[in-house]
Amino acid sequence: MKKDKKRYLILTIGASIGLIAAFMQTIEKLILLENKDAILACNLSSIFNCNTVLNAPQSSLFGFPNSLICIMIFTFLLAIGIVGRTKSHITSKLLYGFQALAIFMLAFALWFLFTSIYVIGSICIFCLICFVGLLLINASLWRLNFSTSQTEGRFTQFLFVMTRGNFDIMLWLSLAVLVTAAIIQRFYV
Question: CATH number for the domain including 15?
């Protein structure tokens, strides 16, 4: 139970990081809507350039800024982390659902990061921060879901064995290395 409290703390931290980054990105987008030529505080270089990313059509995939979706999801996951920290019972089926949502968001973030790197040609620093938050969220939910032996089926048993061997940590670190390598390969090699 003490481990669960730490995992919910990591979930809370990851959701907080993502929520703050998504909020800041939304503010930057509002500044750009007022003045398309505004110089944003998050423009660090030609590579890390929020203007270029936020003006790209991919940054508003559904007709409104992607950061608004992130604000909603991160707020929801932050609430789950806080509820878990209060030792309230969250059923395993709900935790599986939260894991599915977190994995979907991680896949969306990966798509957007690779689109930013290879299509848009710039990276938004807030997107990278959201990605880090999503890695923490997924890692904590994974450990909450698969750190104890489940008798629900072969697949969950496989995930338990994978978690017991710390291969899940390798998965999250590999994703971080993959994104870092893509950035280095595209912009610095």
Answer: 1.20.1440.130
* pLDDT for 3: 76
- DSSP-derived letter for residue 120 is I
Say how many CA atoms lie within 13 Å of 137 toward its Cβ. Answer: 36
In the block, residue with structure tokens 């505080």: 41
Two structure tokens written together for 170: 């390798």
Contact indicator for 77, 138 with CB cutoff of 8 Å? no
User: 43: which DSSP letter?
Assistant: -
**Ramachandran area for residue 145 (φ above 0: left; ψ -120 to 50: alpha; else beta):** alpha
Instruction: Kindly report, residue by residue over 95-120, the tens digit of the pLDDT.
Output: 999 999 999 999 999 999 999 999 99
Residues paired with residue 48 on neighbouring β-strands, in sequence order: 123
Of 187, 37, 15, nearest in space to 116 by CA: 187
**How far, in Å, CA of 156 to CA of 148, rounded?**
10
Structure token digits, residue 52: 């270029």
pTM of the predicted model over 0.70: yes
Q: Are 64 and 103 in contact (CB under 8 A)?
A: no
19 C-beta neighbours (distance < 10 Å), count: 21
Separation between Cα atoms, residue 25 and residue 30, nearest integer Å: 9
CA 89, CA 167: separation in Å to the nearest integer?
Answer: 27
Q: What is the total count of domains within the chain?
A: 1
